[in-house]
Specification:
The complex is a heterotetramer, with two copies of chain A and two copies of chain C. Chain A is α/β, with parallel strands linked by helices. Chain A contains 31 helices and 21 strands. Chain A has five domains: 34 residues; 181 residues, Orthogonal Bundle (Helicase, Ruva Protein, domain 3); 156 residues, Rossmann fold; 54 residues, no CATH class; 297 residues, Rossmann fold, CATH 3.40.50.2030. In chain A, 47% of the residues lie in helices and 10% in strands. In chain A, helix 12 runs parallel beside helix 13 and helix 14 crosses helix 16. The longest helix of chain A has 35 residues. Chain A starts with a helix and ends with a helix. The N terminus of chain A is likely disordered. Chain C is an alpha/beta fold. Chain C contains eight helices and seven strands, in the order E-H-E-H-H-E-H-E-H-E-H-E-E-H-H. A seven-stranded parallel β-sheet of chain C has the order 1-7-6-5-2-3-4, sandwiched between helices. In chain C, helix 3 packs parallel to helix 7. Chain C is globular, with a radius of gyration of 15 Å. Classes of the chains: A alpha/beta, C alpha/beta. At the A-B interface, helix 1, helix 2, strand 3, helix 4 and helix 6 of A face helix 1, helix 2, strand 3, helix 4 and helix 6 of B.
Chain lengths: 787, 787, 191, 191
Amino acid sequence: MNRKNIHIRLSEAKSSTGSIKDLDIKIGKIKGEQWEEKEGPTPFPDHTALRNWDRMLLTRYKPLYIPFCDLCCLCTYGKCDLSGGKRGACGIGMEAQQSRIVLLAACIGAATHISHGRHLVDHLIEKMGRRTPIDVGGSNVDVEAPMIRLVCGIKPKTLGDLETVLDYLESQVTELLAAAHTGQESDPLDFESKVFHAGMLDHVGLELADMAQISAFNLPKADPDAALVELGLGTIDAEKPVILVIGHNVPPAIDIIQYSRKHNLSGKIEVTGICCTAIDLTRFDPNAKIVGPISWQLRYIRSGVPDLIVVDEQCVRADLLIEAGNIQAPLIATSSKNCAGLVDRTDDDPDDIVRDLVSGVVPGVLILNPLKVGEVAVRAALESHEIRKTKKTSIIPTAEELIEYAKRCGGCMECTRACPNETPLPEAMKQAATGDLSFLADIYDTCIGCGRCDDACNKEIPIHSSLVAAAREKVLNEKHFVRAGRGAIQDIEIREVGGPIVLGEIPGVIAFVGCANFPNGASEVAEMAREFAKRRYIAVATGCSAMAIGMYRNEDGQTPYEEFHGRFDAGGIVNVGSCVSNAHISGAAIKIASIFAKRNLRGNYEEIADYVYNRVGAVGVAWGAMSQKAAAIAAGFWRLGIPVIVGPHGAKYRRMLLGRKDHDEDWYVFDSRTGEKVQVGPVPEHLFVTAETKEEAMVLIAKLCMRPNDTSRGRSMKLTHYIDLYKRLYGIMPDDLHLFIRSPADIPITMKEELLPILQERGLKDRIIPDPTLLKSQIRTQMGGRS
Amino acid sequence: MNRKNIHIRLSEAKSSTGSIKDLDIKIGKIKGEQWEEKEGPTPFPDHTALRNWDRMLLTRYKPLYIPFCDLCCLCTYGKCDLSGGKRGACGIGMEAQQSRIVLLAACIGAATHISHGRHLVDHLIEKMGRRTPIDVGGSNVDVEAPMIRLVCGIKPKTLGDLETVLDYLESQVTELLAAAHTGQESDPLDFESKVFHAGMLDHVGLELADMAQISAFNLPKADPDAALVELGLGTIDAEKPVILVIGHNVPPAIDIIQYSRKHNLSGKIEVTGICCTAIDLTRFDPNAKIVGPISWQLRYIRSGVPDLIVVDEQCVRADLLIEAGNIQAPLIATSSKNCAGLVDRTDDDPDDIVRDLVSGVVPGVLILNPLKVGEVAVRAALESHEIRKTKKTSIIPTAEELIEYAKRCGGCMECTRACPNETPLPEAMKQAATGDLSFLADIYDTCIGCGRCDDACNKEIPIHSSLVAAAREKVLNEKHFVRAGRGAIQDIEIREVGGPIVLGEIPGVIAFVGCANFPNGASEVAEMAREFAKRRYIAVATGCSAMAIGMYRNEDGQTPYEEFHGRFDAGGIVNVGSCVSNAHISGAAIKIASIFAKRNLRGNYEEIADYVYNRVGAVGVAWGAMSQKAAAIAAGFWRLGIPVIVGPHGAKYRRMLLGRKDHDEDWYVFDSRTGEKVQVGPVPEHLFVTAETKEEAMVLIAKLCMRPNDTSRGRSMKLTHYIDLYKRLYGIMPDDLHLFIRSPADIPITMKEELLPILQERGLKDRIIPDPTLLKSQIRTQMGGRS
Amino acid sequence: MSGQDSWIRAEMGGTKQASVISKPEVLMALLKKAKRPLIIIGHETISDRVRTDILIRMVSEFQKTQRIPILTTSHIAGQVMERGIRLSGVLGSMEIIDRLRDPTWNGCDGNGQYDLVFIAGFSYALGSLLFSALKQNAPQTKVISLDPKYHPHATWSYANMKTDSWKAEIDRLIDLLHSENTHQKMEEIHV
Amino acid sequence: MSGQDSWIRAEMGGTKQASVISKPEVLMALLKKAKRPLIIIGHETISDRVRTDILIRMVSEFQKTQRIPILTTSHIAGQVMERGIRLSGVLGSMEIIDRLRDPTWNGCDGNGQYDLVFIAGFSYALGSLLFSALKQNAPQTKVISLDPKYHPHATWSYANMKTDSWKAEIDRLIDLLHSENTHQKMEEIHV
C-alpha cells in the first residue's frame, strides 16, 4: 500500500515542472557517488538482451523433450493431439508446446518467489520503514547483493531500494507469462531462452527476499557457526501446547515467537515447523524445532501432536483444513495466496477469533496481519491444548488396529499403482496381517508422504497412517540436528576459496537443493552430501534438502552438521537457509568472479555467466525437485552455466539439456588471450540431467564439476574423484576418460600406470589449457584488453 | 528502459534526506488539486480487498466444474488422478484443480494484455515523451479512464501516468500467478475470486493500452461515424505488392504505413491485416484492409497473395514461418514475445536485412524496432513482389488438382475425428471426387481454419487448402465493410442512454467479443448482432467478432455496419475496436454509474459493480472464445456482474457460473431505501454459461438482460423480446415467465391475454421493485445516506 | 485404435473408460435397477439429419414403454414435440448438469433426483464435456451415451460405429422394449 | 480396467497405445524385420530382485542367440557383467535417448543408428518417460517394453501381469530364441 502512494507521487510529480527536473539532476549525482563501478551492457535486461548468451548454451546443450502427455489442453481449440509430428489448432508443435509448459512452470516458480519477496518487503517497510538498511553480513559482506548488482546494475542499500527491483521483476515475469499465451512464441529455443530469463529473475527475487528478512529480523549474517537446531518428530514435547507452522513466509511465525516471549511463554510452548518457514524460524530462534521437509505434513498432523496449525504460503498441502479437522486442531491461514476458503478475520477482535477457533465454531480463520496471528495462534494453542489433551486426537492406528486394517487388504495393488514410487504396499500389508510390521516400517523410510495410496484403497485402509503406525519407534527416534541457515557467504571466504575453485583444486561446489520428491527417501541426500564433504568438496544445502541431510546419524551418532564444519570451504556442509537462500549459492559463484577475479558485476550478466560457466566447478543437485519453484531455481543456475542434476522424477519437468560428448565439434571455446579456438572436451557435459539412482548422481556430480579452466593439478584431482566413484559404484572403469585428459599432466598420478595404456590406445593428446570464454567480446587481442 | 531509470532515481532519492521530503509534501498538493472526487475504500486493491464481493457473486452463481482431463500434470509428484473424489499428491481436489487452471488461464490472459500495454507505453514514451497527454475523446469524453479511476483511484493525464498503473497490474498478476503454485491456494472459491481479480486487472490493462494508442496515434476518438473500411480476401489487389500484418500490436504496422506515405508509396502497396493489428491499423489508416479474423491466417497465406508477412504478438499461428516459407514470402517477427527462433537483426543495416530477406538467405528476421520494421517491410515487399510475381506462389490446388486429391480419400474419417467441429469432410471429398465441389465449399463456411485435418490425413491430402480451392468463387467475393473501431463511448451518449438502460427501456447492451472458434462459422455472430440491433438493443463489438459481423450482407447488399448506425444508442452496431477496446464496453457500464447516476468511481469498485450488476442490462457474447485472453476478458465482466455467454466450445474453459432459478432463496437483494430484503427473481440468471446453438444464445441474451432495477415498463419490454424469441426459436412458450413478472404491470401488454392464465396458475405476485443492492453498506437508513 | 477410442481423437483424458454397450440387454438391465431414469436430448437430435429419425424413434419408444421423462436442451423443444414426444422440461445443457449434481433437486416432477441418465444428440465435443461434468459432479448417477460414438467419460456408451450398425442396435433395443416380458417387468418397478 | 492400462494409473496421456505382446512370436517377427536392434536395461534389473534373474537370463539369451548389443544405464554395469553379459556401452538413460533421436548417430559400434530397441529394468515412472521421449523423438524406431507392466507409450509392450505369468512368457521367448529354425533365420539377417 505504501508502494502505491509512492508511485502516485512519482507519476504526478512528472506532470508538474521545473523543480522536479532539478530533482532528476541531483539524484543523478547521488547515484554516481554511491557506486563507482562501471555499468555493464545489460542493466535491467529484458529476455532478448541475453538471448544470444542463452542460444550459445542451448546450442551446446540441446533440449531433449520428454512429453508428459501427447495433448495440449490450454485453449478451447483443443484438446489437440501433438504426437507424431502433428501440430495443434494454433500451429504449435510438440517441442514448442513442451518448452511452453516449462516456461509456464518457471514463470509460476519465479512469480511465487517474487511475490513472496514483494509481500515480505511491503510488510517490513510498513513495520520498520523504507530506510531500514540492508545488512546481510556486516563488514564480512561487502558485495551484499551480487545477483541484484549483476542483473539490475544497482546496489540496494535499504528496504525501499528493493522496490525498484521488484517492479522490474514483476514487469518481466508478466512479459514472460504473456509469451505462453496461445499464438505467441513459436520456437522451442526461444521458449527456453525465456525460461532462462525467468530463472535469472527468480534468483534476483530469492536474493531480495532473503536479504530483506536477514536484515529486518537479524537472522544469522553469513555466520558459518550458526546454531545447531533440533530436527525431527522425536524432539517435540507433546506435553506442552504445540504450534505447527507450515510454509515459506516467516513473519507470522516470528510474531508467534515474539508474542510468546513478551508473555513469558518461551519454553512453555513448542513452536514447530515444516518446510522453509521452519528453517527461517530457526534462523530467528534456534529454540524452534524443525519437524521435517514437506513430506512430513501428513504424518506429523495425523500424530495428533499439533494443537494448532498456522499455514502461510507455498508447499502447503491443499487438504490441510481437512487433516487439521481430523485431529480437531484449529487452523490459521495467513496468506492472501492461500485463503483456503476461510472467513477473513483480520479486522476482528482477537478474543472473538480465539473463542471461535477453540470452540470449533469454525475450522479455521484467515488472518492477514502477522502480529495478530502471533497473538491468536499462541492464545488459541494454549486453550486448544487444554481441550485436546482430554481427547484422543491422534489418528494413527495402534498396532492392533493396524493389524486389523492389514487383514482387510485383498492385494488388489491399487495403492502401489497410485504410489509415485511403486512401493510394494500390498506385500507389506500381507506381512503386517501376520503381526510383522517391519516391511511397512521399511516403506515409511522411502514414503514421500503424498497420501495418494489412501484414496486408491478400495477397502478404506488408512494406508499412510498405517506406515506411520508401523514405524512408531523410528518416528519417536527422529531426533536430529541441523545447523541454522547461515545466509550469505562472506567475502573473505570467497577470497580464500576463489583460487582453489577456479583452478580446480577444490574439486567442486555441490549444492543440494529442492523438494522432497525423493525416489528412495531422504537418506540419499545425506549420503551424497557426506560423500562429497569427505572428499573435500564444498557441500551447500537449502530447504528440504538441508533438512534431509540433517536426518542422518553416522556411526558416532553425529548428524552431518556435527560431523562437518559450516564454512564455505573444502569439507564443509553449509546450510545457507531456506528456498530463498538459494540465491546465496548462485551469489557465491558470482562473487568469485567479482571478489576473486575482480570482474565488474554491475549490469554485466553475460561476461560473469561466461566466467562462472568456464571456471566455477559448481553443480546443483535437486534430488527431490518437485515444484515449479524448483524449476525456476534450476533455470537460474542454468543461465549462469551451472549444471543441475535431478532425481528420476525430474524427467517429468519435460526436457533435459544434454551435451553430446561424442561430438568433438561441440566443445570449443575461445582462448581469450589469443582468440584461438580450443577444444576443451565436454566440460561440463550436461546442463540439466536426470539421474536414475544416487550412484549415477554421485558419478555425474564428480564429472560435471570439471571446467575448461581447470589447471592440470585441478583436473587430475577432479578426475581422481570421478574415476574413484565410478569404479566403486559402477564396478568398472569409465570409458570416457580420454575426453577429459588434455595432456599427460592431467592424469591423476596415482592412477597413471592404470590409465596410460587405456589413454594411449585412444591417442593421448597434448592440448593447451586456454583462458576460456564463449564470448568473442572477451578476446583481448581483438578488443585491446578486456576491462 | 526509461522506466527503470525513473525507479532508480526514486529509490535513491529515498535514501537521501531533507529536500526530498519536501517533495513529498508538494506532490501531495498537486494530487489534491488534480481531482476533487472523494477516494473510495479500495484504491489499488489486492484480491482480498474485493473477496467479499466476489464471494457474494460466487454464492449466487456457484461454479460448475467440467474437468477437461482427469489428471493434474503440473508438478513432478504427478501426474495425479483427481477423478472420483481422489486428491493429488499435494492434497488438491478436482474442483480446486479446475479453478486453478482457470486462474492460470486468466493470469496468462491478463499478463498478455498488460505486457502489451507495457510494451506500447514504453514505446510511445520513448517516441513521444512521458508527458504526452492522454486524449481519447477530446471534450466529448471527460471520464476518460473509467476503469483506471475505478480500480486504481487515480486519474491519468499523460502516458507517464500510466506507468504507475502498469506497476500495480504487474505486481498483482505476479501475486495471482504465485497462487497457482503447487501447494498454495486450496479453495475453489478463492481461486475463482482470484480469477475475478485477474479479470479486473485485465480490463484495466486493456483500457490503458487502448488509451495510449488512441492518444499517441490519433485513432478515432469516440467517433460514432468512424470510416467504413474494406474487409475480406476479395478486396485485395494482388497486382500490387502486398504486406500482411498479423497480431495485436499496431506500432510496426503503423510504421509501415508511415514509411510508405513518406516515400509516396501509399496506394501503390496493399497493407492487409489479420486479427487486432488489422483492426487497429484501419483505425489509423482506413485504406488498410482487413483480411479477416484469426481463422483466416492459413487460407490467406496459402493463397500466395502476401509478398511479405509481418507478425507481432498474440494469436499469431505458431507455424507461420513454415507457411510463409511454403509460399516463398519472407517473414518479419517484431515482438520479444514471439521471437520465432529468428536472428535478431534489430541493429543491422536495413539494406542488409532487405537483401537477406528477398534473396531467401534467411526465411525471416527478428526486428524489435518498429521504425526499422516499417522500412524493411516496405522495401522487402516491393522487391519480393517482383520476384514472386514470376513464380507460382499459391499453394491452393486448382479444381483439377483438387479432384485428384479427392480421389485419394479412402473415407477413413481421421480428418473428421481431428476436426473440432466434426465436419463431414470424407463425404464432401467423395462428392468432390466426382467433380462436385459444392459440399466442400459449404464446409469452407464453417471451417475455423485450424488445419488439424491436414496433419490427420494419411493420404497427404492438403485438406484445408482443398476447402479454399472448392470455395474459390466465394473467397474472391469476400468483399465487405467494417466500421473502423471508434474507441470509447462519449459522455453525452452515456448521458442519453443511461436512463433508458437502467430503467430497462433500452432492453440491453449486447457485447459481441472474442475469437473465432465458432461452431458454425462467422455468420452466426452477424445474425445475432443484427437480430438485437433490429430489436433496438445496443450491439457493441470488438476484434474478431467485429470482423465476423462485417462478413455478411443483407438482401440489399448492405453489411451490418452500413445497415445500422454506429452510435452507442438503441439500434446501433458499434465497433469499438480491437481486443484492448473491450475496456470501452465495461467502461461504458461504469460510466453509466458515474455520469448518469453520479456515483463516485474513484477506488470504489464494490459499489460500482453492485450498481452495474443490479441495473445495467448488459450481456457479453463470446461466441468463438478460444484463448486465455478471452478468459480474462470474461472474468473482468463477471466481477462487474455482467453475464457472459460462450459458444459450445466455451465449456472447455472448465467451469460455468450458474444460477438456480428454481431456488427462490438465492434471489434476494436489499432495498437500499429501507434495508428490506426483497425477492427479485433470477435476474440475471447466470454469470457464465455455454449455449449449444445460436438459437439458445439469442434466447439467453434476451433473458440475461433483465435486472432487478427494471421498471415495469422496462421489464415488460425485455420480456416481450424474450418471449418473442423463445416462441420463434424454440417453438413453444417459455415455462419460467412467472419468475420474471413481479406484478401485473410487468406483463407485456400485447401478450397479456395469452400470459395471464399461465401466470395465474403459478400464482401472480405483486412485489415491489426495490432500489436494489447486494451490499449492506448501500442501505441508506442504516448508514445515514449513501454518498 | 478401436471402436473404444474417443471419437474426436484428442478428447481423451479420462482415467476410467465407459463400458461398451455390447447388446441392448445391458440397457434393459440398467433400467431395471434404476429408480429414476431420465433422457436428455440435445440439438443435434434435430440438426443432424442422419440421427434424427433414429433418435426420435428410440426416445419415443422409451417414453411409450418405460414412461421415462424427456428433457430437451437448446431450441429443439417445438420440433421434438411436433414429432409426438411429450417433454418434461427444457433446460440448457449446463443447467441440467447443474441440477443433476444437486442431491436436493427434486427433478422435473418434484419426485426426486435421477439415478440413470440417457444422453444423445450432442456434438461430440460438448457431449464429452457433459459426460465429464457428470462423472465429476454426480458420481452416483449412471450416465449412458446413446449416440454412435464412444464417449469414455460416460458410464456406458456405444462404441464408435457406422450409422447402419447403430441403427440396427437401436432397432434391437426397441424390439426389446416392446417385448411383453420386459414391459411387464418394468411395470412392476415403476408401480 | 484391464492389463492394458497404464500400470501407474495416472501415467496415461498417450493418444496411441502400445500393441500388446500376445506371444513371443511377435518379438521374433520384429527382430526379423529389424536391421539394428539394441537392448537397454536400467538399474532395476539389479535392484528389483524379483526381476533380476528373469531379465538377466532373457538378455543373456538375446545376446547369445541374436548378438544384440546391450547397454546399461545408471551404475549396474559391473554387476551385469559379473552375470556373464558383455556390454556394448554404459550411458545415462537420458543420454541414450538423446543419441537414439539423432539420425546421424552411429551407435555404440560405429555401424549406424538402431531401429529396434528393447527396454527393461526401469521404474515405471521413468520408463514411461523414456518411452514417451522415444515416441516423440525417434518416431521411426520400434520400441519394445519387456517388463511385466503395460507401457502405453511403447510400440509393443507386455500387458500388466503377475511375475509368474511374465516369467512363463519370457521362458517361451527363450525357447523360441533357441529353436534352431529361428536361430538360422536370424543368422541370415545378420550376415
